[in-house]
Amino acid sequence: MSLKAQITEDMKTAMRAKDQERLGTIRLLQAAMKQKEVDERVELDDAMIIAIVDKMIKQRKDSIAAFETANRQDLADKEKAEIEVIKAYLPQRMSAEEVTAAVQAIVAEVGAAGPGDMGKVMGVVKTRLAGKADMGLVSAAVKAALSH
């Protein structure tokens, strides 16, 4: 079953269970997917949906930081609950060790020598690890690999 079909099924299940929080979050995800389809006139595949999910999680993490700074724990908790619902649609992520190993292999393959080659390495890394690893971890691993 495609990720898009899975999200639709989960929405129906949440409607039947009258789970309003989960339903609202899934609807936000579907709205973001529909927006991307309409804006770019494309049919979303699983990789594009994973990119949307990653973006939504990043937005919520940023919101949580802002809400906690403003002492709005109620809103921060709501965002954390949304993250938990959205995370279900991400594939199993690579561990930090796996990310480091993959980055070092790509650095060796590309022949990168120093920090000046970061753009070249990130281009290859993004295509290979998109959706499989947290890009924050990937970026840190590339910087560490190129600083030696």
Task: Please specify the SSE layout and strand pairing.
Blueprint (H helix, E strand, L loop, with lengths): L2 H15 L2 H21 L5 H24 L3 H15 L8 H15 L7 H12 L5 H12 L2
List keywords for this structure.
mainly alpha, 7 helices, globular, 0% strand, single chain, 148 residues
Description of the structure:
- This protein has helices spanning 3-17, 20-40, 46-69, 73-87, 96-110, 118-129, 135-146.
- Helix 1 (3-17) packs antiparallel against helix 2.
- It starts with a helix and ends with a helix.
- The protein is mainly alpha-helical and 148 residues long.
TL;DR?
With 148 residues, the protein is an all-alpha fold. Helices cover 77% and strands 0% of the residues. The chain has helices at residues 3-17, 20-40, 46-69, 73-87, 96-110, 118-129, 135-146.
Number of continuous helical runs: 7
Q: Would you identify the regions where 5 or more consecutive residues have pLDDT less than 50?
A: none
Question: What's the overall average pLDDT, rounded?
Answer: 87
Strand content: under 5%
Give the terminus-to-terminus CA distance: 44 Å
User: What is the chain-wise order of helices and strands?
Assistant: HHHHHHH
Structural class: mainly alpha
Which term fits the overall shape?
Answer: globular
Radius of gyration: 18 Å
Tell me the major beta sheet.
none
Helix content: over 70%
The number of distinct β-strands equals: 0
Pfam family, one: YqeY
